[in-house]
Structure formats: structure tokens, C-alpha cells
Amino acid sequence: MPDIPYDASRDALYSPQLRPTVFTTDAHYELPALCAELSRLAYIHFEDGGAEQASLEAALALVGFNGFVSFIDTPTGTQGYGAWRSADNLALLAFRGTEPNSLTDLGTDLNVSMTAWPLSSGHAHAGFARAALSVFEPVKQWLSTNSAARKQLVLTGHSLGAAIATLLASAVTPDKLITIGSPRIGDSAFAETLDGIDITRFVDCCDVVTELPPELGGYVHVGLSTYIDRSGALQPQADAEFILSDQLAARADFVREYAWKTGNNVVRDLADHAPINYVRSLVG
Q1: Among residues 233, 224, 220, which one has the least CA distance to residue 201?
Q2: What are the sequence ranges of the domains in the chain?
Q3: Which residues pair with 198 in a beta bridge?
Q4: Could you give the 3-state DSSP secondary structure of residue 21?
Q5: How far apart are CA 132 and CA 271, in angstroms?
Q6: Across the chain, how many H-helices and E-strands are there?
Q7: Potential cystine with 71: which of 32, 80, 191, 206 (Cβ 3.0-4.6 Å)?
């Protein structure tokens, strides 16, 4: 069982940056664990500078990263950052997901029409595509200069951040793409442009965002999913029957244990999207 307790609170979902980092100096973290927590930390408002940026940089330093650089586009409300780990020449890009109090983010999510994706091929969610394109040029410049000596490139993000990371992966071809609670992003032609990239897509039990937009709009997921069951254990080869049974039990457990408590989400489908509930499984 994970050491980090399951968090059903609305704060965990709507303000994931409020919780201090789970990183410690005496621990080793595999890439999925790093990506889960670094995706959660992308919600820190580093664009404000000062203490916010210092908080993120301090968390990065705990796991050996420095050279922090931000990628921000105000009109689209897109935020991400890059960092470098000199111990193994790992370059990492992480992007922020949807902030519910941001009308720009909500508009991005709701713009579900398909548009041609110009950086590879196929079609993608128009809102996600606009957000990703808004930071592509500075990301490309950083990759060609500051991190040009890298031995490995990893892209990651949670929710909307996962969508941005996936779209940019089709253009910059990372060694690994690790997504946390990703929605569907584009059509099958777009998904094929990611062939050859090592993709890990984590899905936490009842997480509703991983079922959006619906398939009937032509949307498909990229890569195989790694399912996280209701106890927080990884089930990389879970079949549909197991997942359905586990989700039904998870929702029933949630009603008994969490839904009635003040400050909690009322359904597990929302609570499971909270970044910390991915972190608990991958770090804990």
C-alpha cells in the first residue's frame, strides 16, 4: 500500500500546488515517480516569480534538477517548465493542467472540435493544439541550446498538461512520454505519429478526465494505459472486466468513506483525477 494516504478533498483536485513536495533528499525516484510529482508541482504559480518560483526550484533541487526555465503564454493560459539533471544529462519538460478558476483553461478544454495538427499529421483537439503551439517555439529553442547535450528527454504533464506534452512529443520526439490523467487528444492519424516513442499513460481508477473527449468524436488515446486500481496498486495488464469491477467497488467505497465529508469531492470520478492520488501510487 502507498505511504501517502488517498486524498478525496476538493483542495487536492482544484489547488494541487498547495501541498508541499513529497520529494526527500534520501530517496531514489524512478522516472514515473518523478513525472507524477513534477507534473503536480507544475501547478505552482512559478510565473509569479519570487517565493513561488523559489519553491519549485527548491523541489527540483531535491531530485538533482537545476537550470529551471519557464514556458508561458498568457493569451492561452499555458504554463510549463524545463529543467536539467547533470548527474545523468536528463532534460525534462512538464506542463500544467487545467486550473478550474481559469476561464482561459476552461475555454481551452471546451474547444473540442478537431483541427489539423501542423507539427506532424492527423487531427487534434483544437483547444489543446492552440495551447501546445503557443509554447512550441521557446521549447524548441531551449532544446536546441540549453539542453542540447542531453542524453535523454522526457515530456510529462497532468490533465491538460498531459495533452500539451503529448502534442509536443509528436514534434520534438522525446525518449519518453509519461502522462498523468491524460484526456484523449486527437484522432488515430495523430496517434500514429507517436509510434516509436516510449509512452506510459497512467489512469487512476475512476478518473473521469481520461474518458474525455468521447471516442465517438473520433478521438483515441495514445499508447497503452497503466491502470491504477482502487487500492493504489499498478495494474499494467488489467482487462476491461477487471477495470469495470474495480471501478464499481471503488465508487461504492467512496460513498461510504469520503463523499459525505465536508470539503471532499462528491464522486470518486473527480477525486481520482487529483494529482496527489497519482503521486501516492507512483511515489508512495
Answers
A1: 224
A2: 10-282
A3: 176
A4: coil
A5: 26
A6: 10, 10
A7: 80
Helix (H) or strand (E) holding 152: strand 152-158
Q: Classify domain 10-282 by CATH number.
A: 3.40.50.1820
What's the average model confidence in pLDDT over 23-30?
Answer: 92
Task: Report if pTM > 0.90.
Answer: yes
Cell of 280: 501516492
Give kind and range of the element (H or E) at residue 226.
Answer: strand 225-228
Strand runs labelled E in 27-89: 65-73, 78-85
* Amino acid symbol at 127: G
Q: What are 227's strand-pairing partners?
A: 203, 235
Identify whether the C-beta of residue 89 lies closer than 8 Å to the C-beta of residue 75. Answer: no
Q: For residues 7 and 158, what is the distance between their CA atoms, to the nearest angstrom?
A: 17
Contacts of 283 (CB under 8 A, 6+ apart): 2, 4, 22, 29, 33, 36, 37
Which of 5, 195, 212, 256 has the alpha carbon at shortest distance from 108? 212
Residue 102 scores a pLDDT above 70? no
How does the average pLDDT of the chain come out, rounded?
93
pLDDT-above-90 percentage for the chain: 87
C-beta separation of 97 from 42 below 8 A = yes
Rounded-to-integer distance, Cα 275 and Cα 251, Å: 18
The answer to whether 151 and 90 are in contact (CB under 8 A) is yes
